[in-house]
Amino acid sequence: MMWRFPAIVLVAFAALPASAPPAAAERLIASLSNHRVMVTSNFTGDELVLFGAIERDAATQPHRGGYDIVATVTGPRQNLVTFRKARVLGIWVNVDSRVFENVPAYLAVLANRPLAQIANAETLRRLQVGLDNTVLNQRAAVTIADSARDDPFRVAFLKLTARQGLYREDPTGLTFLTPALYRASIPLPAQAPIGDYEVDVKLFADGALITRTPSAFEVYKAGIEQSVSAAARDHGILYGLATAMMALMTGWFASVVFRRD
Amino acid sequence: MQIYLPIADLPVNIFVILAMGFAVGFISGMFGIGGGFLMTPLLIFLGVTPAVAVASVTGHIAAASCSGAISYWRRRALDLALAFMLLGGGILGTAFGVWVFTTLRTIGQLDLTIGIAYVLLLSVVGALMVTESVRAIVRTRQGKPVELRRPGSHTWFHGLPFKLRFKRSRIYVSAIPVSAIGFIIGFVGAVMGIGGGFLLVPMLIYFLRVPTATVIGTSMVLTLVTMASATVMHAATNHLVDAVLALILMVGGVTGAQFGARAGQKISGEHLRLLLGLLVLAVGVRFAFELVLTPEDLYVIRPLESGA
Description:
The structure holds 2 protein chains of 2 kinds. By secondary structure, chain A is of the alpha+beta class. Chain A folds into 2 domains: 4-221, Immunoglobulin-like; 223-261, no CATH class. The longest helix of chain A has 22 residues, at 236-257. Chain A contains 6 helices and 14 strands. Chain A starts with a helix and ends with a helix. Chain A is globular and about 85 Å long. By secondary structure, chain B is mainly alpha-helical. Chain B has one domain (2-292). Chain B has 10 helices and 5 strands, in the order E-E-H-H-H-H-H-E-E-H-H-H-H-H-E. Chain B has helices at 14-31, 36-46, 50-74, 80-106, 110-141, 175-192, 197-206, 212-237, 243-264, 269-292; strands at 2-5, 10-13, 163-166, 171-174, 299-303. In chain B, the strands form 2 sheets. Chain B has a two-stranded antiparallel ribbon. Chain B has a two-stranded antiparallel sheet with strand order 3-4. In chain B, a hairpin with a 4-residue loop joins strand 3 (163-166) and strand 4 (171-174). The two termini of chain B are 38 Å apart. At the A-B interface, strand 5, strand 6, helix 4, helix 5 and helix 6 of A face strand 1, helix 3, helix 5, helix 8 and helix 9 of B. Strand 5 (77-88) of chain A pairs antiparallel with strand 5 of chain B, so a sheet runs across the interface.
């Protein structure tokens, strides 16, 4: 990892005007409104607020070009299959599929302005900032590799996840309240998967990454939702028997309540 | 009021589900069927994945047929011996159906298979029911006697061995076609999430010559046991039964069934069969359109099944 540090410094210096102060002078503070999101029977999605500030020590001059912040929220990793349909003998059939290995089930990229204006394409790609720059590994026959940007399965994958509200890239999702205070809301759709979510907040100035700070939250099922889904997963047979018994009881109860003879 | 379904992982309006259960229950009470062939497509339409819909509807049908079977039992209008014979095949068919369901799900062709099965089964059965009932209605209009059961006319399977006498239904048939019918119903029910009542009743009447007095009650006992065991098997193998969804459907369903049964008594048998035939046919055509029309999206995403 040692080789990386000089590289970042070099890039940073190359992008900065000669008079700029050292890059490490800013501190980025990030906090979430809630670190545990509970999924209960009335869960219809939620919204978390990410807020924080940029702190400068007294010696540091503010950047003339101003600051940019990109927050990336990454949900639990999953293996997802994308099927492609084609017409076979007049009807639509799943003919082809790709497995996306270990990809986030939720991914939100929130920034204060379009990513292209924040940093150049090379920097964004290297830091994996933005949906287009996120590595989505595809399983081929034996190897696993990142999918090509124009791969139709990848394009379809991003489109479908965006429609479900699971993947999003919002260039206005993060706002500066003052030059040093920022706020972003992280929308969680009702379909947001259960698990651990990582939040990575990156501070850019003049096209270069200055610092980053992590945070995290957890989405978990609680109450009856938790017990039902845990029972279904861990005690399939018992759960099935209980459901069947419930059906018989409901049927019996109805026949008693509505008895006509 | 929104409620989050724990297995379907989806928020739904509890009153929409209750109303759906009630409406389907009304129809099922009216025609003496489980109503799964209507409920499963409705759930899929709401956004529940076909796999969860099929697995959860089995619980709902078990409840509906349980309340039906009890009221037929009180009237002594069911043939337990015949039901047990059908069940032997039914349980085997259900187990085989759940296995096929799991396999199709692993290879990603479950949705398609459910679609094709609906189209074929519903359009064929629907068309048969419509033509048969129209003929019956025309015959009654012309003043000819209704001729459902022709005593003495034997088909080939009356020559099969292992003959058994079913006293309450007053029939004497081989055990082979009885178990085979049970197997088919169990299989179809597990794969498609339907109780198969709308298939079983005509099969019992036309093939086994079971009198109308005992046919619906007997069919309900079979549906009850195959669907209750399908619930257990789906829960044990696929972990897809949503008990919360099933419970809401059941409550709506058993209530609706009571009102449906009263409404059904006011309509003559032929007209009832014609209505049911049209309904079955309509659902089949609806599925056919879905298969043939160009889908909005050529791609779908599914979680990878473990073990695949």
